[in-house]
Amino acid sequence: MTQGHEPLSIMDGNLQTDFSTKTKRGIFLSRSLTLVILIIFALALVATAFIVYNFAACPRTDHLANVTKLTYCEQSKLLVIPLSTDSTTSVSVESTTSYAETTTKEVDNTVTDVRLPTNIKPDSYLLKLTPYIIEGNFTFDGEISIVITVKNNTNRITFHGVELSFNKINLYKKEDGKEIKIIRRTEDVARQFQILDITETLIAGQQYVLNITYVGILNDNLHGFYRSSYEEKKVKRWIAVTQFQATDARRAFPCWDEPALKAKFTISIARSNNMTSVSNMNMVGRSPHEVLKDYTWDHYAESLPMSTYLVAFAVTDFGNMSDHNFSVWARKEALPSAAYALDIGPKILKFLEEYYKIKFPLPKIDMIALPDFKAGAMENWGLLTFREIAMLYEEGVSPTTAKARVASVVAHEIAHQWFGNLVTPAWWSDIWLNEGFASYVEYVAVDAVEKTWKLMEVFVLNEVQSVFKLDALTSSHQISVEVGNPEEIGAIFDKISYGKGSAILRMMNHFLTDEVFNSGITDYLNAKKYGDAEQRDLWSALTNAAREKGSFDADVAVVMDSWTLQTGFPVLSITRDYKTGAITFRQERFVLINETNELHNSSVWWIPISYTTAIEKDFESTRPKIWLRGERSIVVHNITISENDWLIGNIQQTGFYRINYDQRNWEMLIKILNDKSRFEEIHPINRAQIVDDAMNLALSGRLDYTTALDITNYLAHERSYVPWKAGLVALGYIDTMLSKGAYYLEYKRYVLSLLNGAVQELGWEVTSNESVVRAQHRVDIISTACHLQHVECLEHAVRLYTNWMLTPNPDAYNEIHADIRSTVYCVGIQAGGAREWQFAWERFLVASAPSERELLLSVLGCTRAPYLLYRYLDLSLRNDSGIRKQDTIRVFSAVASSSIGEPIAFNFVRANWLRLKEYVGSVSTLNSILKVVTRRLNEVHEYEELKRFVGESCSDLGRPVQQVLERTAANVQWMQRNYRNIVDWLLEAEKTKTA
C-alpha cells in the first residue's frame, strides 16, 4: 500500500505547473497524455484494491508477522484458501496429501457455545518449546505430539489454538504408525477452535498421534506464554513465564483446553545457557540443543494427569533457595526476601497433608515471584507463580501486615494442590469449588501455623462481611453459574466464587462439625483424585460422612443447593413477643435497592440458626439450635429468655446471612454495648456483626439510621480490631457519600470523637514482635484519623515525611517504620505540592522492594493537585513510565480514592477509553477500573452520565459493568432517602456532646 501512494506524492509536490514533464531520456509527455496515464493508473489501483479486498479480506497466514491479521476477517463466515502453488497465503505442511485451510469468523461476537466436541479425548502431551528471549525476537518454536483416544467414530478432530502459526500437522495411527491424511484445517476464530477434517473415519476406542510444529508469540499481555522484564544494575533483563487459567494454555500449545480433559504432560524447554527453566515436574535430564549453539534442553518428568490450565513453565535468570523438596525462586537481588515464604511454605504443606489426610502427590514444589503477573498468584501443580508482592517479605521494609498476606497467599495456593489440582471441577461453572475452598482453608492453615494471629476472626471481615456488599446487588450471580465464552468465565473469578464460596463452606463446617466435614472432604478427594468432579459429588461425600457419624439428618445437597444455586443471601428477622415468649424467625432476600418485595420473596434458604441470650452468654456453641428448612418463617415457643434480656443470633457469624431484630431487642443491645464494663460479654465477632448488620440494614432501608448510628457510639470504648474494622468500613460508606456535601465537617467531628481513645492507645510507636492484628489495627485507626484531619496526626506525619525528604540518601535511610509509612507518605504528599509528589515519584522509580513500590504507587494518588493527578493517570498508560501494566488498576484506584481525585479519574477514563482498552487489553481490568472510578457517584446527573457512557462505550463488558450501574443507582437512592436523616442525627449528636 505504501508503494502505491508514492506517485501521488510526487505528483503533488514536484510536477511542473503545465502538467508536462521530461524524463531522463528526453521524452516529453503532453498534458493530455499525462492525464490519460494518470487515469489509467488510478483505475488500476482501484481494481487491485478490489481484488485484494475480495480475496484477502480474511487473511490466513502462518507467518508469525501476520498472526494478528486473523482478527480482521469480517467479510464472510467461511473462507477457503486452497493449498496450491499460486496461493500466497498458503501454509507449507509436510503430509502425504495437501489440505486446504479455512478461517471462520462469526459475525456475532457473543458466541456462547464454546465447548469442544466430545468425540476425542487427549491422553498425553509431549511438548518441546524454544522461546527466543535474549534475542529480543519474543517468539517461540513449538513441537507437540498428542496421543488421543477416539470416543465416538469421527472424521474430524477439533482442538484449541490461538495466535499460533502452524508449520506441519501430521496424524498417525498409534498402533501401526500409518499416516492418516488430512483434507483441510479450519480455524473457528470466535470459538478459538482448530478443526482438522480427515480422509477416513477415526475408530472409537483406538488411539492416534497428532504431531504439530508451530510458532507462537511471547506476548506482553500477561496471559498465555508471555514475556516479562526487570532491571538489575540499570540493565534490562527479559524472562518468559506462563499464566494459563482460565483459557490461555491454547496460546502456548495446541490442546484440549477444558478443565475436565486431563492428560499427562512431558515437557522439554530449550533455554540459553545463562538462564534456567522450571516446570510442574522435577527435571530428569539435560542435553545440548541440536541447532542452537548456546542453548540447552531441560527435560522434565512426565506429570500426573492434570488440566491444561495448570501446566506451567518459566525461563529466567533468577536465583533460588531450597528446603528439601521445597524451593523458592526470585530475582537474585530480591531472593533474600523469599526467606519467609520458604519458611512457612513447608509448614503449610505439612499441615495440609494432615488436614486432607492425603500426601502431596508430586516430588517437589517450586514457588516463583514474578515481576509482571496479572493475578495475585496461581496454583499450577508443583510450580506456584506469584506476583512479587504476594511472595516476598523483607523485614524492616515490608509492613508487618505484608507477612500475613504472604502467609495467606502461600496457604491459598498450596491448598489448591489438592482442591483444584488433584480433583478439578468438570467445568468452570463450579470454579467456586476451587476458589471457595482454597479461600477458606488458607485461614485454617495459617491459623494453625501462626496461632497468635487469630486469623479466623479476621475471616468474618475479609470474606463474609466483604462479599455481602456484592451479593446484595440484584446483578450478582449464583455461586454455581453457567458460563460459556472466555469473558464470562473470567468474570466469575470474583468475590462470589472466592468470598461467598469460602463463607458457605465455613458455615457448613460449623453445622456438620469438624470431624464430619474433614472426613467428607478426604473421602471426596480420594474418590475423585486425578479426575474431575461437580459440586454434587462433594455434597454426596459429605452426606455419607454425616450419616456415618449420625450427626446430621438432612441431605447436604438439599441444604447447600439453596446457597449455591440461588443468587444473593437472606436477612433473618427475629421478632419477639415479650408477653408470651414466642419468637418468630422470618427470612427474605437482602437486596441493596429495597423497592419491591417480589424479588426477595421468591427465594428461600435452608438457614442454620444458632443463638445465645443474656443469661447463657454462650458464644462458643456455633452448631444450629433451629433450622429454617426452606420455609419462609417459623414460630418457636421453647426458648428460655426473660423479657428484659437480649438475644443474639448467628453466633460468631458462622451463617451467611444478616440478622434484624425487633426495636426492643436492638435497644437492649445498644444498652449493653454502651456499658464500658459489660460490652465485652459479647464475643468480638458478634460485636462486629451487630455493627455491620445494623449499618447495612439502615443502608437498605430496613432499619432506622438513628438506631444504627446509636450502636456506633459504643466504638468510643472499643479496643478490639475486628469490631473496629467493621465499624470503620460501615462508617466509610457514609464518609464517601457525605464527602462532597455541606455537612461533612459534622461527620468528621463525630468519627474523630470515637477514634480518640483508640488513637491514644495505639500511638505511632511500633513495638518489636508486634502481632499482625495489632499492626493492622494501628494502620486503620491512624490512617482514618489523618484522613479526617486529626491535627496531631497530620502534624506528626508531615514532620516525619519532611525529615525523610531532607535525608542525604533517602533511598538508603528511611527511619519511618514500615507499618506507618502508608499514612505518613499519603499525608506528606497531600499536604505538600509538586516537590513532595516528585520526591515520592523518584523514590518509586528506584525502589526495588515490591512492598515499597506498591505503597508508593498507592500514595502518589493522595495529592490534591489536579494536574499531578492527571499526570499520574497518563503515566500509568505509558510503557516507558516505570509503572507496570499489572499496576494500572492500582493507579486509578489511588487517584479515585478522594473526593478530589474521583471525578478526575472518571473524566480521564471517559476521555481516554479507547486508549485504555488498547493498553490494558483485558476486559476484567477495564471492569475493575470502571468500578474504582465510580465509587463516589451519588447524584442523579452523575448516574445519567455513567449510564450514557456505559451505553455508548462499554456495554460489552458484561455483568460487572451492570453491577457498577446498580451500585451507583443505590448510591443515588441512599442520598435521596438518608442524607437529611443522617445530617440531623449528626447535628443532634454534636449538640448532646457540647451540652
TrEMBL record:
Biological process per Gene Ontology, one example term:
proteolysis
UniProtKB keywords: Aminopeptidase, Cell membrane, Disulfide bond, Glycoprotein, GPI-anchor, Hydrolase, Lipoprotein, Membrane, Metal-binding, Metalloprotease, Protease, Signal, Signal-anchor, Transmembrane, Transmembrane helix, Zinc
Pinpoint the ERAP1-like C-terminal domain residues: 646-968
Q: Which residues form the Peptidase M1 membrane alanine aminopeptidase domain?
A: 340-563
Query: What EC identifiers does the entry list?
Result: 3.4.11.-
Q: Which residues cross the membrane?
A: 32-56
Q: Which residues are listed under the site Transition state stabilizer?
A: 498
Where is the protein situated, by its record's location annotation? Cell membrane; Membrane
What the record notes about the co-factor is: Binds 1 zinc ion per subunit.
Residue positions annotated to bind Zn(2+) are: 412, 416, 435
Residue positions of the active site? 413 (proton acceptor)
Q: What InterPro entries does this protein map onto?
A: Aminopeptidase_N-like_N (IPR045357), Aminopeptidase_N-like_N_sf (IPR042097), ERAP1-like_C_dom (IPR024571), M1_APN-typ (IPR034016), Peptidase_M1 (IPR001930), Peptidase_M1_aminopeptidases (IPR050344), Peptidase_M1_dom (IPR014782), Peptidase_M4/M1_CTD_sf (IPR027268)
Record has Glycosyltransferase as a keyword = no
Which catalysed reactions does the entry list for this protein? Answer: Release of an N-terminal amino acid, Xaa-|-Yaa- from a peptide, amide or arylamide. Xaa is preferably Ala, but may be most amino acids including Pro (slow action). When a terminal hydrophobic residue is followed by a prolyl residue, the two may be released as an intact Xaa-Pro dipeptide
Q: Which residues form the signal peptide?
A: none
Provide the Gene Ontology terms for cellular component.
cytoplasm; extracellular space; plasma membrane; side of membrane
Can you tell me which family this protein belongs to? Belongs to the peptidase M1 family.
Query: What is this protein's name?
Result: Aminopeptidase
* Species name: Danaus chrysippus (African queen)
